[in-house]
Amino acid sequence: MTDPGPGLEAALALIADVPDFPEPGILFKDITPLLADHSALQAVVAAIAAAGRGADGRPVVDKVLGMESRGFILGAPAALALGVGFVPVRKAGKLPRATYAVSYALEYGEATLEVHQDALRPGDRVLLVDDVLATGGTVKATVELAEKCGAEVHGVAVLMELGFLPGRETVGAVPVTALLTV
User: Fold this and answer.
1) 23, 97, 107, 110: the active-site residue
2) Choosing from 70, 144, 147, 152, which is the catalytic residue?
3) Where does the record place the Phosphoribosyltransferase domain (predicted)?
Protein backbone atom coordinates (compact mmCIF):
# COMPACT_ATOMS: atom_id res chain seq x y z
CA MET A 1 0.00 0.00 0.00
CA THR A 2 1.15 3.54 -0.73
CA ASP A 3 1.75 5.51 2.46
CA PRO A 4 -0.86 8.31 2.50
CA GLY A 5 1.12 10.30 5.06
CA PRO A 6 0.93 10.97 8.79
CA GLY A 7 -2.30 10.39 10.59
CA LEU A 8 -3.41 7.01 9.28
CA GLU A 9 -2.05 5.04 12.24
CA ALA A 10 -3.71 7.44 14.67
CA ALA A 11 -6.94 7.23 12.66
CA LEU A 12 -7.01 3.44 12.77
CA ALA A 13 -6.36 3.55 16.53
CA LEU A 14 -9.78 5.22 16.91
CA ILE A 15 -11.56 2.02 15.88
CA ALA A 16 -13.20 0.82 19.09
CA ASP A 17 -13.45 -2.81 20.19
CA VAL A 18 -16.91 -3.75 21.45
CA PRO A 19 -16.91 -7.20 23.08
CA ASP A 20 -19.92 -9.49 22.76
CA PHE A 21 -21.67 -7.48 20.05
CA PRO A 22 -23.92 -8.33 18.30
CA GLU A 23 -23.76 -11.61 20.19
CA PRO A 24 -21.57 -13.25 22.86
CA GLY A 25 -18.10 -14.21 21.64
CA ILE A 26 -17.95 -11.60 18.86
CA LEU A 27 -15.47 -8.72 19.09
CA PHE A 28 -17.09 -5.96 17.02
CA LYS A 29 -14.92 -3.26 15.45
CA ASP A 30 -16.81 0.03 15.72
CA ILE A 31 -15.64 2.59 13.13
CA THR A 32 -17.96 5.40 14.26
CA PRO A 33 -15.28 7.12 16.42
CA LEU A 34 -13.02 7.24 13.35
CA LEU A 35 -15.82 8.63 11.19
CA ALA A 36 -16.58 11.33 13.77
CA ASP A 37 -13.00 12.66 13.72
CA HIS A 38 -12.31 14.95 10.74
CA SER A 39 -8.56 14.33 10.60
CA ALA A 40 -8.99 10.58 10.97
CA LEU A 41 -11.65 10.40 8.27
CA GLN A 42 -9.50 12.54 5.98
CA ALA A 43 -6.50 10.22 6.48
CA VAL A 44 -8.56 7.10 5.79
CA VAL A 45 -10.18 8.58 2.67
CA ALA A 46 -6.75 9.62 1.35
CA ALA A 47 -5.42 6.09 1.95
CA ILE A 48 -8.38 4.48 0.21
CA ALA A 49 -8.12 6.89 -2.71
CA ALA A 50 -4.42 6.02 -3.03
CA ALA A 51 -5.51 2.55 -4.19
CA GLY A 52 -7.00 4.25 -7.25
CA ARG A 53 -3.85 6.19 -8.14
CA GLY A 54 -0.82 5.22 -10.19
CA ALA A 55 2.82 5.59 -9.14
CA ASP A 56 2.74 9.20 -10.38
CA GLY A 57 -0.20 10.02 -8.08
CA ARG A 58 -2.69 10.44 -10.91
CA PRO A 59 -6.02 8.59 -10.87
CA VAL A 60 -6.01 5.34 -12.82
CA VAL A 61 -9.71 4.65 -12.34
CA ASP A 62 -12.80 6.16 -13.95
CA LYS A 63 -15.27 5.35 -11.16
CA VAL A 64 -15.42 4.23 -7.55
CA LEU A 65 -18.03 1.61 -6.65
CA GLY A 66 -19.18 1.63 -3.03
CA MET A 67 -20.98 -1.36 -1.59
CA GLU A 68 -24.07 -0.85 0.56
CA SER A 69 -23.98 0.66 2.96
CA ARG A 70 -20.70 1.49 4.68
CA GLY A 71 -18.93 1.40 1.33
CA PHE A 72 -20.95 4.53 0.52
CA ILE A 73 -19.45 6.34 3.53
CA LEU A 74 -15.88 5.68 2.40
CA GLY A 75 -16.33 5.35 -1.35
CA ALA A 76 -18.06 8.65 -2.14
CA PRO A 77 -15.36 10.85 -0.57
CA ALA A 78 -12.65 8.64 -2.13
CA ALA A 79 -14.26 9.30 -5.54
CA LEU A 80 -14.19 13.03 -4.81
CA ALA A 81 -10.52 12.81 -3.81
CA LEU A 82 -9.76 11.02 -7.09
CA GLY A 83 -11.85 13.42 -9.17
CA VAL A 84 -14.03 10.62 -10.53
CA GLY A 85 -17.66 9.55 -10.24
CA PHE A 86 -19.21 7.35 -7.57
CA VAL A 87 -21.50 4.39 -8.26
CA PRO A 88 -23.56 2.82 -5.46
CA VAL A 89 -23.91 -0.96 -5.40
CA ARG A 90 -27.22 -1.59 -3.65
CA LYS A 91 -29.21 -4.39 -2.12
CA ALA A 92 -31.95 -5.79 -4.37
CA GLY A 93 -34.91 -3.55 -5.07
CA LYS A 94 -33.28 -0.24 -4.04
CA LEU A 95 -32.37 1.15 -7.47
CA PRO A 96 -35.13 2.71 -9.60
CA ARG A 97 -34.00 1.88 -13.14
CA ALA A 98 -32.85 -1.20 -15.06
CA THR A 99 -30.20 -3.10 -13.12
CA TYR A 100 -27.82 -6.00 -13.30
CA ALA A 101 -28.09 -8.32 -10.30
CA VAL A 102 -25.78 -10.91 -8.74
CA SER A 103 -26.78 -13.21 -5.90
CA TYR A 104 -24.29 -14.80 -3.55
CA ALA A 105 -24.29 -17.12 -0.55
CA LEU A 106 -24.12 -15.94 3.04
CA GLU A 107 -23.61 -18.05 6.16
CA TYR A 108 -27.33 -17.80 6.85
CA GLY A 109 -28.85 -17.57 3.37
CA GLU A 110 -28.42 -15.55 0.22
CA ALA A 111 -28.07 -11.89 -0.71
CA THR A 112 -28.41 -10.01 -3.98
CA LEU A 113 -26.59 -6.87 -5.07
CA GLU A 114 -27.54 -4.63 -7.97
CA VAL A 115 -26.07 -1.82 -10.05
CA HIS A 116 -27.74 0.33 -12.70
CA GLN A 117 -27.06 -1.11 -16.13
CA ASP A 118 -25.87 2.28 -17.40
CA ALA A 119 -23.73 3.14 -14.35
CA LEU A 120 -20.50 2.07 -16.05
CA ARG A 121 -19.28 2.15 -19.62
CA PRO A 122 -17.43 -0.70 -21.30
CA GLY A 123 -13.74 -0.24 -20.58
CA ASP A 124 -14.22 1.84 -17.41
CA ARG A 125 -11.58 1.04 -14.80
CA VAL A 126 -13.11 0.86 -11.34
CA LEU A 127 -12.05 0.77 -7.71
CA LEU A 128 -14.33 -1.14 -5.33
CA VAL A 129 -14.63 0.26 -1.80
CA ASP A 130 -16.11 -1.23 1.37
CA ASP A 131 -15.48 -1.06 5.09
CA VAL A 132 -14.63 -4.72 5.74
CA LEU A 133 -13.36 -7.66 3.72
CA ALA A 134 -14.54 -10.80 5.50
CA THR A 135 -15.52 -13.87 3.46
CA GLY A 136 -15.26 -11.95 0.17
CA GLY A 137 -18.77 -12.71 -1.10
CA THR A 138 -19.81 -9.08 -1.39
CA VAL A 139 -16.63 -8.11 -3.23
CA LYS A 140 -16.85 -11.09 -5.58
CA ALA A 141 -20.48 -10.23 -6.42
CA THR A 142 -19.50 -6.60 -7.05
CA VAL A 143 -16.67 -7.69 -9.35
CA GLU A 144 -19.24 -9.69 -11.33
CA LEU A 145 -21.55 -6.66 -11.52
CA ALA A 146 -18.75 -4.43 -12.81
CA GLU A 147 -17.82 -7.04 -15.41
CA LYS A 148 -21.47 -7.34 -16.54
CA CYS A 149 -21.27 -3.61 -17.32
CA GLY A 150 -18.08 -4.20 -19.31
CA ALA A 151 -15.85 -2.49 -16.74
CA GLU A 152 -12.41 -3.61 -15.59
CA VAL A 153 -11.81 -3.91 -11.86
CA HIS A 154 -8.56 -2.15 -10.96
CA GLY A 155 -8.67 -3.18 -7.31
CA VAL A 156 -10.47 -3.27 -4.00
CA ALA A 157 -9.82 -0.95 -1.06
CA VAL A 158 -11.19 -1.68 2.41
CA LEU A 159 -10.74 -0.12 5.80
CA MET A 160 -10.35 -3.50 7.52
CA GLU A 161 -9.67 -7.06 6.50
CA LEU A 162 -10.57 -9.96 8.76
CA GLY A 163 -7.41 -11.96 8.14
CA PHE A 164 -8.78 -15.12 9.73
CA LEU A 165 -11.47 -15.40 7.01
CA PRO A 166 -10.92 -16.35 3.35
CA GLY A 167 -11.74 -12.96 1.78
CA ARG A 168 -8.63 -12.67 -0.37
CA GLU A 169 -8.99 -16.26 -1.58
CA THR A 170 -12.61 -15.61 -2.58
CA VAL A 171 -11.70 -12.39 -4.39
CA GLY A 172 -8.97 -14.16 -6.37
CA ALA A 173 -6.60 -12.15 -8.57
CA VAL A 174 -8.14 -8.74 -7.89
CA PRO A 175 -5.61 -6.62 -5.94
CA VAL A 176 -6.78 -5.83 -2.40
CA THR A 177 -5.65 -2.85 -0.32
CA ALA A 178 -6.57 -3.20 3.36
CA LEU A 179 -5.67 -0.33 5.68
CA LEU A 180 -5.89 -2.63 8.73
CA THR A 181 -5.83 -6.42 9.07
CA VAL A 182 -7.33 -7.93 12.22
Assistant:
1) 107
2) 70
3) 37-161
Please, are residues 16 and 33 in contact by the beta-carbon 8 Å criterion? yes
CA–CA distance, 17 with 14 (Å, rounded to integer): 9
- Give pTM, 2 decimals: 0.93
pLDDT tens digit sequence for 17-52: 999 999 999 899 999 999 999 999 999 999 999 999
Count CA within 13 A, CB hemisphere, residue 70.
14
Each residue's pLDDT tens digit, 72-117? 999 999 999 999 999 999 999 999 999 999 999 876 789 999 999 9
107 as an active site residue: the answer is yes
Whether residue 38 lies inside any domain: the answer is no
Angle subtended at Cα 70 by Cα 67 and Cα 75, rounded to the nearest 5 degrees: 65
Is residue 114 annotated as a catalytic residue, yes or no? no
Report the DSSP beta bridge partners of residue 156: 128, 176
What is the domain count for the chain? 1
